[in-house]
Amino acid sequence: MGRGAAGGARRSRRGSAAAGGTRRARNRNAGGSPAGAKAEPPGPGVVDLGAQSGRWAAFQERHRLSCEEAARLLLDAYEYRGLVKHTGGCHCGAVRFEVWASADLHVFNCNCSICTKKQNRHFIVPASRFKLLKGADNLTTYTFNTHRAQHTFCKTCGVQSFYTPRSNPDGYGIAPHCLDEGTVQTIITEDINGKEWEKAVREHKTIRDMSKP
């Protein structure tokens, strides 16, 4: 074969390869997937805001919030509609918490042996609405009898600002007198006969539900 013919053959092969590449490129979408393939869903943490992207960016910029801070603010506002965020803690400040609850509190005044001695008045919330901000390593716990109630208190000042009630082990009992000022509007106090604890809780219509989200 002459050099001219061989060169033509080489050019022909290159041309075929280029044409094949063009055909393959046409069969792929902009993301590199074959034509007709389903688009991959966004990865974890990726949210397509669609037409709300501009509003979201403006909201973050106006309030100087990170994406996580803005998301938490809006989720809290949606999930905790009708509730307010209370903050509180012990006397020395080593233990601090926040809790979402009504501004109008329903407080239990129990007369069982331990509640009488420590004047344990409390309102009950689901565990999901309570967040310990600091002081986990400064808490100690006292239990007795069934050991279901977890009487937590500050190691430094001895104040119990919250605990886990026997009646509601899936929630928390919060001491209203340990909340910071400014978020509580009214307090209704209900006496509960802790001296006959089993009977009182069994006959109470709503106490078990107070720790349900």
Provide an overview of this structure:
This protein is 29% helix and 24% strand. The chain has five helices and ten strands. The chain is α+β, with helices and mostly antiparallel strands and 213 residues long. The strands form three sheets. The protein has a five-stranded mixed sheet with strand order 8-9-4-3-10. Strands 1-2-5 form a three-stranded antiparallel sheet, with no helix packed on it. It has a two-stranded antiparallel sheet with strand order 6-7. The protein has helices spanning 3-26, 53-63, 67-79, 113-118, 197-203, and strands spanning 84-89, 96-101, 104-110, 121-126, 130-134, 139-142, 151-154, 162-163, 171-174, 186-192. The longest helix has 24 residues, at 3-26.
Strand order of the largest sheet: 8-9-4-3-10
Q: How helical, in percent, are the residues?
A: 25-40%
Order of helices and strands: HHHEEEHEEEEEEEH
What is the 3D shape? elongated
Strand content of the residues, in percent?
15-25%
Query: Biggest sheet, in brief?
Result: 5 strands, mixed
Extended strand count: 10
What Rg is obtained from the alpha carbons, in whole angstroms? 32 Å
Helical stretch tally = 5
List its salient traits.
disordered N terminus, alpha+beta, 213 residues, 5-stranded mixed beta sheet, 10 strands, 3-stranded antiparallel beta sheet, 24% strand, elongated
